[in-house]
Write a structure and sequence with these properties.
Blueprint (H helix, E strand, L loop, with lengths): L12 H6 L4 H18 L4 E3 L3 E10 L5 E11 L4 E4 L7 H8 L3 E2 L3 E4 L7 H15 L5 H6 L1
Helix pairs in contact: 2-4, 3-4
Length: about 140
């Protein structure tokens, strides 16, 4: 079975964010860092080379593939901010309708810049996502995959 690539690395979150070339993406990353740390109460950890994660959960799929992942997190990518863990909680869809300008996939919310979204709604999404992924509630998610 393939080894997981997204594991905690011990690298410096601050150094990673300082290395982000795009000034708006770097500032938005610093803002998300502070917000996620406050909302989750967790210390940020680098997962792989480019994801800043908060908390973790264990998953195991029917295929037998298992591992750990960040409960919520983000990556200031060149095209947009990728924000992880906001789409799984049952309440997330109603909040996403109020978030502002974003794109969504199954696992990510893509935000061009934080100025495009309602920061209070984003904080609520982070809190709900974190609580959902760190409780037994997310077990139903695994049975669908």
């Amino acid at each position: 079975m393939a080894e997981n690539k997204m594991v905690p690395t011990g690298e410096s979150v601050e150094e990673f964010l300082a290395s982000v070339e795009h000034p708006v993406r770097r500032q938005d990353g610093e803002t998300l860092l502070a917000m996620m740390q406050e909302v989750t109460g967790q210390t940020p950890v680098m997962w792989g080379q480019s994801i800043v994660g908060f908390g973790s959960y264990h998953y195991k799929y029917a295929s037998g593939h298992a591992g750990d992942a960040a409960a919520v997190g983000f990556s200031p990518r060149k095209a947009s901010l990728s924000v992880y863990g906001l789409t799984y909680a049952p309440e997330s869809e109603a909040l996403l309708e109020r978030l502002g300008k974003y794109k969504k996939s199954v696992a990510c919310v893509y935000i061009n810049k934080l100025a495009d979204v309602d920061m209070e709604v984003l904080a609520e999404l982070i809190g709900q996502g974190y609580r959902y992924m760190t409780t037994a509630d997310h077990q139903s998610l695994q049975s669908r995959t």
